[in-house]
Design a protein that fits this description.
731 residues; 18 helices; five-stranded antiparallel beta sheet; disordered C terminus; eight-stranded mixed beta sheet; Alkaline Phosphatase, subunit A; single chain
Length: 731
């Protein structure tokens, strides 16, 4: 079976398949940086010879494997473990719709084994929770506390999970100089994922789209396709293109691209000449030059006639129908190739054409997005082109109303179908070992449609509140149907099946700009006595600023020796300042909402997490009450006039709140040994199911068999606080 073969053997099997495909030499691009030459054909040739050697050695390896794993096999409790991740599935909503008979497959799974809330990570957001899932340790030991953080050298934003850039080397030859540019990408998450430990113990794994797995890490006996934080071809975390014969206005770039240029998207005014529109798609930058690719849209052409048109880009073309996505089309630039879908939104009175972010082509990746590198090529050959962008569902295009709800839902389910095809391939070819596939569909649809569950949500103003009222319930039904089909395919008593989520959901109605609050309290100072400052701390006087906020849940103290212009000394001064800010924030009330409490708890990071990476983290983590979250402008380091503001974006549901009120879900076809499992328990549980001892640093414990005390302090839904962990109703 494919997954039972060594990756090099897999490469050999694929060699003939891909050798005659598009394999000419191409460039590896560091997103937003330059180009360093390399070639897919050389990777494949090297793989062929490595695979040939592996095939010769296979009989000897099989004997060694059988001898080394005899004791492990006798301890194993399962021969296969399948975990389906439904990002963001909420236990309250799941329980409600199961009770109403709307989720029969999940109800059947619960009846056969267990259904309960799953305590999430602190802070309660996907990069943190999934990092804890895979490593079995809390953020203090894996180092991920948010999507973005600040660079302590200059206070500018940087991606928390990966560092991507370009290095330059110059060689001199007399009067001549030769400069080489080389892109680099480095994983910033620390600690090792449990499938690496499985691989070292001869257990095969298939890992698909788990967040915070980019760049892909090498491990034995398995394959991996990276998930969240894979960039698009331009180097951002998702930058769409919108072409129209009449401009709508500025597209905000707030958090969509984590500070990258043209983060959220670009809008371009185009001219219609007869029935033809011609324009350029922006690609990556090479040698300081932004690459472009021309395309032509001919309205009224193709099989849809007056209801559509025909798109031509390079050698690719497709018929477009208003309100439907094109198939994936190859977008070729000089030295790089991506893929994108086109969506003809309107023909009259103005033409509107939306283009998804240009994804890295999985059949011809410009840098590794899988392990082994050829695994993405294999999947593309098996299931066709698929989206590779980490945050694939284009939430920002809907936030900025460049697409409507119907277009977003179609896009989200297209990605869901691709993920499903990957899962079927893994199940068919991994009869023994570990499989996990993470579906983002639940998370993205809830983010964008949660307002439909609350008629009073401020984001409902001026938007549809009827047509897609059932969107959130529909995605739960979609998940339920998928679970039923997965169970049918793995109907085996030796297979442990888990459906889980990293966190739940609540309404996000009000934004809190903590930089404005810090200014009002005298902890953040702007230059020239100003009250407001721009994105990325524009206008902040660092010589007088003691605290600032960036990201989605944290406050940083401007500490001496850590921040470039720090003014707060470690020790008593730091301790006193943190306590002072935390005590005041616990009393913060929203006067416009009748004095409602906005914050349940404030957590001291270094007191809560004892790992080595707490030092670089936000010093305080904010546990918002339901309905509240960092405002959009606070997330990008802006200081607004007011502390509180209505959230009017389509992004209306969220989970960056007190983790005790947004647990995930845990379904399993077997009973477990506790009533309140924690996301930290999953790594030691999977290891235990295969008879592999969990490393002593892991903080959770196995969920099956006799309950054993975890090796380290198990992080619950949140660090210890002054307040009982009661769960308030969502507003």
């Amino acid at each position: 079976m494919l997954r039972q073969l060594k990756p090099r053997v897999l490469l050999a099997a694929l060699f003939a398949l891909v050798l005659f495909g598009p394999a000419e030499a191409h460039a590896y691009i560091g997103p937003g940086a330059g180009v360093a030459a390399a070639g897919t054909i050389f990777v494949l040739i090297g793989a062929f010879f490595a695979a040939f050697a592996a095939l010769i050695a296979m009989p000897i390896r099989m004997v060694i494997r059988w001898c080394k794993t005899r004791g492990q096999r006798s301890r194993a409790k399962a021969k296969r473990v399948v975990i389906v991740g439904m990002d963001g599935m909420d236990p309250e909503l799941a329980a409600r719709w199961m009770a109403e008979g709307k989720l029969p497959n999940l109800k059947s799974l619960a009846d056969a084994g267990v259904f309960c809330p799953l305590e999430t990570a602190t802070p309660s957001m996907s990069p943190v929770a999934w990092s804890s899932f895979m490593t079995g340790v809390d953020p203090g030991k894996h180092g991920i506390f948010d999507f973005i953080t600040r660079d302590p050298c200059n206070y500018m934003p940087m991606l928390s999970s990966a560092k991507i850039g370009e290095s330059e080397t110059t060689f001199g030859f007399g009067k001549f100089k030769l400069t080489f540019h080389k892109s680099f990408y480095r994983m910033l998450r620390r600690s090792q994922p449990f499938w690496k430990i499985l691989g070292e113990n001869w257990v095969n794994s298939s890992i698909q789209r788990v967040p915070i797995t980019f760049p892909p890490e090498k491990f034995k006996n398995g394959v991996l396709l990276s998930g969240m934080c894979v960039p698009d071809l331009k180097g951002s975390q998702g930058s769409f293109s919108f072409f129209t014969t009449k401009l709508r206005g500025r597209i905000q770039d707030e958090t969509a691209g984590m500070g990258a240029e043209n983060a959220g998207g670009t809008e371009t005014e185009v001219k219609r000449v007869g029935n033809v529109i011609e324009a350029l798609l922006e690609g990556p930058t090479m040698g300081g030059k932004k690459l472009t690719a021309p395309f032509k849209l001919t309205l009224g052409a193709g099989k849809h006639g007056a209801k559509g048109g025909r798109i031509e880009v390079g050698k690719e073309s497709a018929d477009l129908e208003v309100g439907e996505y094109s198939p994936w089309l190859k977008i070729e630039f000089e030295g790089a190739q991506g893929i994108a879908r086109f969506y003809l939104q309107k023909l009259e009175p103005d033409v509107e054409l939306y283009v998804t972010p240009i994804h890295i082509d999985p059949a011809k990746p410009i840098f590794p997005i899988s392990e082994p590198e050829v695994y993405s090529v294999y999947l593309a050959k098996m299931i066709g082109p698929f989206g590779t962008l980490g945050l694939a569902e284009d939430t920002w295009a809907l936030n900025e109303r460049r697409i409507d709800e119907a277009a977003f839902l179609k896009q989200a389910y297209l990605y869901g179908e691709e993920r499903e095809a990957m899962l079927w391939d893994a199940i068919a070819k991994t009869k023994r070992g570990f499989i996990t596939t993470v579906f983002d569909t639940t998370d993205r649809i809830q983010h964008m449609f949660f307002r439909y569950l609350d008629p009073t949500h401020p984001a409902n103003a001026g938007k549809d509140v009827v047509q897609h009222k059932g969107a959130v319930e529909d995605v739960y039904r979609w998940c339920d149907d998928l679970v039923g089909r997965v169970r049918a395919k793995i109907d085996d008593p030796d297979t442990v099946f888990v459906v889980m989520s990293d966190h739940g959901f609540k309404q996000f109605q009000r934004g809190v700009n903590l930089n404005a609050w810090l200014r009002d309290e005298g902890y953040l100072v702007l230059k020239d006595g100003k009250r407001t400052g721009g994105d990325w701390f524009e206008g902040v006087d660092w010589s007088k600023t003691k605290a600032f906020s960036m990201g989605l849940t944290g406050i940083f103290i401007n500490r001496k020796g850590r921040e470039a212009k720090g003014i707060v000394a470690d020790g008593e001064e730091l301790h006193r300042l943190k306590n002072e800010i935390a005590d005041k924030l616990r009393k913060l009330l929203d006067a416009e909402r009748g004095g409602v409490r906005a914050i349940r708890e404030v957590f001291d990071t270094q007191a809560s997490f004892k790992g080595p990476y707490s030092y670089e983290a936000p010093d305080l983590l904010i546990g918002y009450d339901a309905g509240y979250r960092h405002s959009w402008d606070c997330a990008v380091g802006c200081t607004s006039e007011k502390v509180f503001s209505d959230n009017t974006k389509s992004w209306s549901g969220d989970h960056c709140m007190d983790p005790r009120i947004v647990p995930g879900v845990f379904f399993c076809n077997r009973k477990i040994n506790r009533t309140t499992p924690n996301i930290l328990d999953l790594a030691p549980t999977v290891l235990d199911l295969f008879g592999v001892a969990a490393p002593p640093y892991m903080q959770g414990g196995p969920l099956f068999g006799e309950r054993r005390a975890p090796a380290g302090p198990t992080a619950g839904a949140a660090p210890k606080s002054r307040e009982p962990a009661s769960q308030p109703a969502a507003r």
